[in-house]
Amino acid sequence: MIIVAMILLTLVLMASVFYKVNVPVIILSLMIGLIFGSDVTGIIYLDNALLVKEIANAALMFILFIGGFGTKQQHFRLVLTPVLIMSTLGIMLTAVITGYLFHLITGWSFMNSLLVASIISSTDAAAVFSIFKGHPIEARIKTMAELESVSNDPMAIVFTMFVINLMVGQQTSTLASILSFSWQLVGGVGIGLSIGLLAVHIFHKIRHIEAEYFYIYLISIVLLSYSIANAAQTSGMLSSFFAGFVIGNKQIPYKKGLMAFCNSLSFITNVGLFILLGLLAFPRSFSEIWHLGIVIFLLLTLVARPIMIWLVTLVTSLKPKEKLFISAIGVRGAVPIVLATYPAAAGLDSGHEIFNIVFFTVALSMLVQGTTLVPLARKLGLLTKDRNKLPKILELVTVQDTNYEIIEVFIDDEYYEGTCLVRDLKLPPGTLITFINRQGKIIAPSGSVEIHPNDVLTVLVEKRYIDMIPVEILRSFVMKRIEELSKPGNQESQ
Question: pTM score, two decimals?
Fold first, then answer.
């Protein structure tokens, strides 16, 4: 218990130190695992990949459910086709390109090279969700990256097993592999959608019970969506995501509170997962394979994935900078490490070496891509600049259904200046500003009260008018950038 307390305390202290540079929690967790692991301090010895696999599954259940919960239906439709191609043909194309080039550069046998590439071909949902959390990435790009990371694991698993079976001399039917993958994909989606719809129905039937029971109910949904899919030999990852997707796009009681609760659970399991991944590493063994890990990381990041993304998105409306960013979102994580245990389990002589290469590549991917993706998005202009574009929806708890929501609108002084009166706002009928939070002071909003930049407005509004409220409020203010461009002598205004 003392060691666990030390690990958690170290994590908190490191987070406080690195707060200003926005180091993702997965990086901090991985570093702590390495520090407390066998080859650094030697405090904890861990070489049980199966244990890490089980904890990874527990983490992924909640991480993917929350990912689906927060995915809007309209965004999902926009990215469905390219994501399906990226998660199927894209995985095989990435593996073949990477494996062939790795074979040419290193002299490894083509089959061993293809095996390493197939293991490392899928992106990691836990890593992607963790890196994007709290950052206003453009909605379509964020949805595409998250959905790809959820859906590409089944294909990576099937293709990896296909290559292993070829190497050990087992006859593997191509048709059987295709059918296996198809069932994982279709079955996982179908089970997730079914459980989600049933869960919504039950939500409304039990809305009269105390709120605490809803938390227990939500945990049961997450567990059922994953475990039933696994029992049916389909993708539990997809099932969890789509169960959350259905529930997140329906009106249910205590929705915001349940979201916060599940976010906390996913955060804790995510931290635990990547600490264990760090503990599982033996950095001293990397001295023999680090150059191979760098080669495969560079091939994946700079060659194979960009080619795949460019081909898949030819028929889309994505801009070059958006394609570039999606190409960069190739973060590897827990699933490749678990898959890396398969070659040794199958009795392949290269199994131990393959595991070390994959682990080093995953660690390198998280360290490099985990710290550069958000700055890259900012550089490419893919971060949502206007904090008011999507108002924060607060929990409105009622026993009966209501068409109203409570939202917060922030007047960001970085973009807006000036003042306006409450009575001058042209808000939709039935809309009420309940109070104004000005630097911690609560102000009752009578008609003569002025609204200032940096104010946070709490508004009661009909659901159909939610998107209108920030627009109508901000029309009464002046955007600084527009004012700058209108100044005489400004070259950009010429």
Answer: 0.68
